[in-house]
Design goal:
- This protein is mostly helical.
- It is 85% helix and 0% strand.
- It has 18 helices and no strands.
- Helix 3 packs across helix 10, helix 4 runs antiparallel to helix 5 and helix 8 runs antiparallel to helix 9.
- The two termini are 35 Å apart.
């Protein structure tokens, strides 16, 4: 028990250090780019990355989560998992490259096609990564995962500065992201001794898929939920407004993203470890819930109060239009982050099916409300739509966890009152 406690403490320390360092480097890159590029460049990149993310998430196998959640030795599963991941990535590379022109015609912007074709190579770089790095998270060797996260971010920063000065267009972002993924690929083989090979075992695949299919379902819904919004903004409001929305979204989730990374890197493996010990799992959940709420509410309040100052100081006055979006978008980020822990617990105890149903209902709410609210209220209506959707997901997940873990409502209300 003392050994697992020590691993958890070290895990949180290294995960925190890695997330702060990695996000800090990424944020420095974003600040530099924001001062050199125009909103339209970020709008184009947002469309390209949305296509990339939605393609990867729509084909998420869920095998990584299954390998972490599975008890015992997982070595026999690795080659099958890696083979499926590579085949998926190669197929996506071909498909998205071919779809680049039709997507460009949809937006009526020729440069969208060029951006998407450039981004499509990222599928291959991700698919070839060494599957052995899954042990870093499974065994709570978070210091190794931190190195794997931070070093590529440093490479990206080194590439993006000269690229942005020389090119001064969206290709500076594309080259820097490609450099990061290439370095991730190389490091994955340097840092872990496992050498994957093409091998497919149907029985092992079927076993992984029994758990992974629900992660796959959640991933499909999350892909639509997360990436439909920028695609919608770009088409309905225009690429420039999408650029402003992109910068506001960055600031609204920046600190939450750091905390979210830490929680998933350490919290999910730890909850999976405690899945058969309900009392320990319950205590861990409540302790982490208190910390999340204690940090989230003050962070959101500060960003709400100083939204204009943050935008002008961090980016520049040309991005001031992002401040009005940020003022309300921060609440969508707060609510989404507050529901993270409940979703994580559902996966760790083998209840991804419930998370799938909640996610599906939330996407239905999003699709039903986004068009009328955007039509009558503009970009503010779209943000209000996100607040409604995130509120439903957070509350439904929390109620389910309280019921399963037999948590009294006072244990949930106290952290909220304390933090305010």
């Amino acid at each position: 028990m003392d050994n697992i406690k020590s691993k958890i403490k070290k895990g949180f320390f290294w995960a925190g250090l890695g997330s702060v360092g990695g996000r800090g480097i990424q944020f420095a890159s974003d600040v530099i780019l924001s001062k050199l590029l125009i909103p339209e460049d970020f709008g184009l990149m947002a469309i390209g990355l949305a296509v990339l993310n939605i393609s990867e998430m729509l084909t998420e196998t869920g095998f990584n989560s299954a390998l972490i959640q599975k008890q015992g030795d997982i070595k026999k599963y690795l080659n099958t998992a890696w083979t499926m991941e590579f085949m998926k990535s190669a197929s996506l590379f071909i498909l998205i490259f071919l779809l680049a022109d039709p997507i460009s015609k949809f937006y009526n912007i020729q440069s969208v096609s060029e951006v998407i074709k450039g981004i499509s190579i990222l599928f291959l770089l991700r698919g070839l990564r060494n599957v052995g790095i899954i042990y870093f998270r499974k065994n709570l060797q978070i210091h190794k995962q931190v190195a794997l996260d931070i070093l590529p971010s440093i490479v990206q920063l080194i590439v993006v500065i000269p690229a942005a000065h020389y090119l001064q267009n969206v290709w500076a972002i594309i080259f820097s992201v490609a450099a990061r993924r290439a370095s991730e690929l190389i490091l994955s083989f340097i840092m872990h001794h496992h050498r994957p090979r093409f091998e497919f075992n149907f029985l092992l695949f079927k076993e992984l898929f029994q758990f992974g299919k629900w992660i796959f379902s959640v991933s499909i819904i999350s892909a639509i939920r997360k990436n439909f919004v920028p695609l919608f903004v770009g088409k309905y409001f225009g690429v420039a407004i999408l650029g402003y929305f992109n910068r506001a979204e960055l600031l609204s989730i920046l600190l939450f993203s750091v905390l979210n990374e830490v929680i998933w890197k350490v919290g999910y493996p730890t909850m999976s470890h405690f899945q058969s010990e309900k009392d320990k799992l319950k205590k861990f959940y409540l302790d982490l819930f208190f910390i999340i709420i204690y940090l989230a509410i003050p962070i959101s309040g500060s960003i709400y109060l100083f939204n204009q100052e943050l935008v002008t100081v961090i980016f520049s006055e040309q991005w001031l239009q992002s401040a009005s979006i940020l003022k309300t978008l921060i609440f969508a980020g707060l609510i989404s982050f507050s529901g993270t822990l409940s979703s994580m617990l559902m996966q760790s105890i083998g209840k991804p099916k419930v998370a799938t149903k909640i996610s599906f209902n939330s996407i239905m709410i999003l699709l039903i409300t986004i068009f009328p609210l955007s039509h009558f209220m503009g970009i503010s209506g779209l943000v209000f739509c996100l607040i409604i959707t995130n509120s439903y997901s957070m509350l439904h997940s929390l109620i389910f966890v309280m019921k399963v873990m037999q948590i009294q409502i006072s244990k949930v209300i106290y952290p909220i009152l304390f933090s305010t």
